[in-house]
Every structure is written in C-alpha cells, then in structure tokens.
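re: that complex we talked abt at group meeting.

here r the seqs, copy pasted straight from the sheet so there may be weird spacing, ignore it
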Amino acid sequence: MDDRTANILRAAQSVGASWALLSAPDTVAYAARHVAGIETGPSPFDGGPTLALVGPDGQIHITCNELEAGLSSDANRAYSYVSLGFSDLRPITARYGDALRAMLDATKPTGGVAIEARCCPAVVVEALMPFGAVAPFDVALDRTRSIKTAPEIEALRQCARITADGQNAVADAVRAGDAELTAWRDIRLAMEIAAGTRLPVAGDFVTGRARTALIGGPPTDRLMARGDPVISDLAPRVNGYWGDSCRTGCIGHVSEDLRKMHALTHDAYQMVRDTLRPGISAHDFDAPLRAMILDAGYSNSIHMGHGIGTSVHEWPRLVPGEQAMLRPGMVLMVEPGAYHPDVGGVRLEQMFLITEDGHEVLSPFEIPQEMPVI
Amino acid sequence: MDDRTANILRAAQSVGASWALLSAPDTVAYAARHVAGIETGPSPFDGGPTLALVGPDGQIHITCNELEAGLSSDANRAYSYVSLGFSDLRPITARYGDALRAMLDATKPTGGVAIEARCCPAVVVEALMPFGAVAPFDVALDRTRSIKTAPEIEALRQCARITADGQNAVADAVRAGDAELTAWRDIRLAMEIAAGTRLPVAGDFVTGRARTALIGGPPTDRLMARGDPVISDLAPRVNGYWGDSCRTGCIGHVSEDLRKMHALTHDAYQMVRDTLRPGISAHDFDAPLRAMILDAGYSNSIHMGHGIGTSVHEWPRLVPGEQAMLRPGMVLMVEPGAYHPDVGGVRLEQMFLITEDGHEVLSPFEIPQEMPVI
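got the structure back, here u go
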C-alpha cells in the first residue's frame, strides 16, 4: 500500500472510519494522483465534485466525468458519466448520481466513511447513508498530509525547479514603462515552457511603494518605473503539486530605505537558516523572526510560512499561537517579509524540507544578500 | 427587486421553496455579483464554499472568508470568518460553521430553501434543517439563468469586446518556430491588458493537423510550422461573466484541403446567420448544420453551441435531442466546426443574442470568408 494511502486510512481510523471519501481537487490529487484542471473554476461538465473513495484494502475508486476518466495515475477503477458528450441528456446531477451509486454498489463501503466537511456534498452523504455512519476528518487529513512521502518530496523538488525558472526570468521580464501584466506574461511563460503546458499560478506580483507595502496582489496594468520595488511571489502548480517562492528587487536604482529593508529581511532569512529544525513549534519558530521585523519598525501582518503539497497552503501555518511541532518530512514555505507604507515591501521565500537534524533548501535559486537591481 | 433576484426566487418557488441558497462560484456571482478568484482552485483559506442566501424579500446574504467580505456588489450583508488572519486558530470548518449559523440565525430562512444538489455541502444542509425543508433546484436555476437581463447583456458585450482583442492579437502572436505557449502568452496578455487584470481563460489553442483534428486542447510546447492550421478558441472571464469565440487560420500558406474545410465551415456559419431565431428548438437548429458538415465528409462530435453567462457553458446546449426552444434574451455561443484526421480542423464561433425576431451578433470581430493566412 502506498504511503499516502496508508496516511489517508490512518486519518480515517482516527475518526472511527474504515473508508475515506475525498471530494476536493487537492485531496483527490493527493489520494489518486488524479490531477484535473482548476484554472477556470469548477467544470460546467461536472454533476458534482470528482470523488476518490479509498478502501481499507488500499484500493482507490473514482467518480468523475468522462473527460477525467483516464486522469488517475493511482486509481484502480473510475466510474464516469456522460458530460461533454450528448448521448445522455438527463440533468447532469442525475448522471453524476448514477456513477456515484455504481461506485458505492460495487464497493459497499461499510464500517464508516470519513468525509471532508468543507466540501462533501449533501447528495454524497445521502448516498452513503445505507452503508453506515459518516464522520468528518478534515483536521486529521490536514495533519497526516503534512509529512511528505519520498515521491511527494521529488514532486515538490520538480515544482521548486520550475518555480526557480520563473524567478530567474524576472530580471529580463521587468522593464520600466511596461505594465506589471507584461512582465508577468514573460515570467509565467518561462515556467510554462519548462513544464511544457499551461500552469495554474498563484502568488503575487506587485510593484512600487504603495502596492508592495500592501504585501501582495495580482499583477495589473500599472506601469512600472525606475526605483520601484518589485515583489515576485511565484507559485505554479506542476503535475498536481505546488511550488512557491519570493524575491524582491528594485528597478534601476535602490533607495537607501529599501536597501535597509532588504538587509533586515535578509537578516531574518539568515535566522530562518539558523533556527529551522524539527522539534520546535510553529509559534516558537515564528516569534523571534516576527520580533526582529517589528523591532526594526516594519510590519508583518501575515504568516511567516506554511506547508505546501497538493494545496498551495497546507497545515501547519507558521503563525503566533500555532503549537504544531515541526517534524522531519514536512515541506514548508518560509517567507519573512518587512512592510512599511512610506517605503514599500520586501519578502524572501524559499521551500524547505525538514530533515532529521535541520533542513534542506529545496528551492534552487539564490537569495541575494544585497537588494538586486533589475 | 433586481431581475436576477426575481429569476432565482421564481426557480426556488418552482420546487416549493421561498428561499434560495447558492454555493458555486458562478451561481454566487449570478446572485450577488460576488466574483471571487477561481484561477488557482478552491481557496485554502475557505472552510466551505462561499454562500449566497436569497430571501423572499429580495435581500441577499453572504457567508464567505474575510478576504471576500467586500466583494459582493449586490449583497446586503456578508457574514465572514477569519481565514488568512490568525486571530482564530480553531479548525477552519468551525470558523465557517460559525459564520454560516450567524447568517441563518439572523435571517431565519423558514418556508423551504432551494439548494444546488451538485455542490451544496452536507454541513450546510444540516445547518438548514431546523428551519424546514430543503429541495434541489439545479435544473430550474439553469433554465431561469438562460434568459439574460439587460445588465447581463451589457456585461456579456464587454466580454465579447475583450475576447475580440484576443482574437485580433492572434495574427501577430503566431510565428512559425515558436511554441504554442509563446503565442498564447501574447494573446492572453492582449485580453488582460484590455481588462487591466489577470483573467481566467478557458478555451483551446491547438496547431497542426493532428492537434486541430482533435477539436481542442490547451497550448503546449509544440513548435508551430508553416502550413499549420491554428484553432484559437478564446474564453476569458471578465468581471464574473465569460466571453467565448473561435477563429481558425493557417501559418504562411493554406493547403487546398484546409481551404475547402474552411469554406464549408463558413457555409455553416452562413446557415447560422440565416436560421438562428426564437421559436426553433436546439435540436432543430443543430440538425441541418450537423448534416451539412457530415455530408461533406467531415466529423463534428461536439455541441454546435451553448449558453453563456457567469458560467462558460450554460443551458441550453445546441446538441441532437435537446428539445429546448430558443427564446429572446438568450445569449448563445454558436460554433460550427469541421474535423478530419487527414486534414486537421476548422471552427468558427461568435456570441449571439436571440432577439424578438432573429439575433444580434455580440462578437465585434470578423469571420473571414476565406481561410486567413497568419
């Protein structure tokens, strides 16, 4: 049985269930390496969310529309329904219901089914009722996913490499007088060419004092100018896993205020390299970094980092009050940043694997000590 | 009361309910002009889907994460919960549940609530139970949305304009020797610059005989070559509404086989202009177009068109067997195409408003009679 499958079943057992039913794009990708398109929202050809049912024997069964039937790398059987085709013109919810019931009739998931409260549809819970109890396991699932398997770490390394291709394209892509969206176009292309396909890309691309001081946001038609700080926070999804990253540079010229802000953020980055290890809590890791930034007169109102995997933000979050312990096998984004309305913002972010005695940097790009001129 | 609100309540009443609860990104956008990002999948900062509750008095209430609290143009009140913030570290499903219950306690939706079977979570139905019955109304909602209100038609006109900016960028963007993704980058940018923001973009960008013969697909790292047919099917979402469109050209040189295929598809387009009017069924509209393509020895295994609005594909679909009548106020994409494995594919698509006595073309770009050289 695959390690991820064992993780899912262990999480199900923690709520008294023998089976697990996943119903979100990221958890279905986690369970079955079933990676569907997400860039245009839920498919209009879906009668309900794609489902992955994991049995106590480790077998994985999928309910999905006909277009996705061949997507699962790890599923043992897909129960699909007519969607883009038109051989069945009944309401799509009826077609989905038939595929779901076919899956349940074939598998007979008795002994309790763990579901995701955040997304499991009422019609799915209703269809499960004849087989026994259902129990939500969102929290247990989040926690079990935080320890990555060896193949997951390889997948995240690949994401980190393609993310680095994006970061390394920033200097050529950014030109004073162009719109942020024009630079974003070229940065995104560098990652898409490296992957050979369109990629969902999360993150931020903000330029200038006012926008960078607000931490993040999508690129707009704002025209970039000499002296502008540029926060490029790039997070592509590649084969179902996410990369993430951030660097900050200045166009043509670095002001003294921004030079100081970058130097302080680089000091925080050095503290990350000195302190990131297993056995420290998220709270205790975050606290001195946050204090360093606030003591210097800057703000940092967001998390200092987060897990990453088939979701771009996973448990644990590196925030005040979070008592989760960092453990070997976690892959964490760490992103110290400093922000000030009169200066702008700087953020530096890499991907880290927590090892038995410290960490390994998975992001193959440099974090420069001096604020780079781009 | 807004026409869309009245439409939603009428659909709810058709299943015996006084209230309606929407839970998909496109239906929440329809109800409340609440347009959330969709490009990176469901937000990791959501404890459940954003909800729009429409009351019999026409008031609209939203449950959403704190980042979306200001998004709704038309909602009367948003009930939000801590998401990206970290002042509340309880499980996000608990925070979502609190916001949902606050909305229900304030509104007391008695008299029946219509829900969407395809996406309404079990936890939401459970929270509704104390107030009375729930009933699915997916089919009724799909049908009521098909007749667009005057503001919706204006929104779709804007989408059609921005889509045309994309189509008009194709000729400059496509260069033999470049990857499809490189052309896509420039076409996408033309639409994003016109909108001033990142846009979700659905559709197809396929080049060469083999790929165009398969109707569609996303752009890849395939290098384009002289003589290649190019199908550019562009569908951006702008302010919550979708555009769609398709043209087909050839790089540098048009073969005789492709010239004939385009001429036949243009004949089909002319038949669309001659026959698209209210009072004809989707089946009867589709049939002669489909026959014309098949009789010429080509295939067309997809729909001849579809509704469009806050979803890129809406009811009715223009397919064999669909008895829905075309009615004034519908906005339809019509997309005759011809495909052959030995030749490639050609598709031509514009956006049409069904009027009282015929139709109006909403797409402000030309459909050339001769296959264009690009």
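couple things i noticed - Chain B touches chain A through 68 residues (CB under 8 Å). The first helix of chain B runs from residue 3 to 13.
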